[in-house]
Design a protein that fits this description.
Blueprint: E1 9-10, E2 16-23, H1 25-34, E3 47-49, H2 53-60, E4 70-77, H3 78-87, E5 88-90, H4 101-110, E6 113-121, E7 127-137, H5 139-149, E8 150-155, H6 157-168, H7 172-178, E9 183-184, H8 189-192
Parallel strand pairs: 5-6
Antiparallel strand pairs: 1-9, 2-4, 3-7, 4-8, 6-7
Helix pairs in contact: 3-5, 6-7
């Protein structure tokens, strides 16, 4: 089955969506233990969340990158996720989507969230033809993410290592069976039309 190039795919329920982040253990472990981000988590800076587990594996080097040794699955409300998408601006200028470069810059400065689409990854972390959503949250969006939208935080570092071990052993089917089931996310097309190049 051919994947749509720009489509949000995620592990989701009727009320939540799961996003992934990687942190150093001093942040990640308390967050998973307490189910909320600790005071050391900076609410005043841009934080990037990813609904793709494999893109997070690519970004964190299977949870081995410096400062990315703890991978978290952060379950947030769909209401919060969709608010962020509606308020977001593409992280780059797109001719035909934005009236001009100056208008895009004004929108980017105003928006509490931004979106970029990066190549999705396979189990060998090679790029695929379709894109994976990356959602950057700043200002109001980052604060609401941490303090209002978060439903649960789970340490999935062990899962990252288990999948990687099977990939290294050549057991690709066994590795795939461990992956979170990421399905197309049902969102109103009009609500995200401003985010698709």
């Amino acid at each position: 089955m051919t994947e749509l190039k720009y489509q949000i795919r995620a592990l989701h329920t009727a009320s939540t969506v799961t996003l992934y982040q990687a942190y150093r253990p001093e942040i990640g472990l308390p967050a998973a233990r307490d189910g909320r981000f600790p005071p050391a988590w900076q609410r005043d800076r841009m934080t990037w969340v990813k609904p793709s587990f494999l893109w997070m594996m690519y970004r964190s080097g299977w949870a081995t990158g410096e400062g990315q040794e703890t991978v978290l699955a952060v379950e947030i409300t769909r209401e919060g996720f969709e608010w962020a998408l509606e308020q977001a601006c593409l992280s780059h200028y797109e001719h035909g989507l934005h009236s001009d470069r100056a208008a895009w810059k004004r929108e980017l400065k105003r928006a509490p969230a931004r979106v970029q689409w990066d190549p999705e990854r396979d189990l060998h972390l090679q790029p695929l033809a379709h894109r994976s959503l990356q959602l950057g949250l700043a200002g109001e969006a980052a604060r609401r993410y941490a303090d209002e939208w978060t439903v649960s935080i789970t340490d999935v570092t062990g899962l990252a290592h288990a999948v990687h071990a099977r990939v290294r052993a050549g057991e690709v089917d066994a590795a795939r069976a461990l992956l979170p089931v990421e399905r197309p996310y049902p969102v109103d097309g009009a609500a995200v039309a401003h985010l698709r190049p």
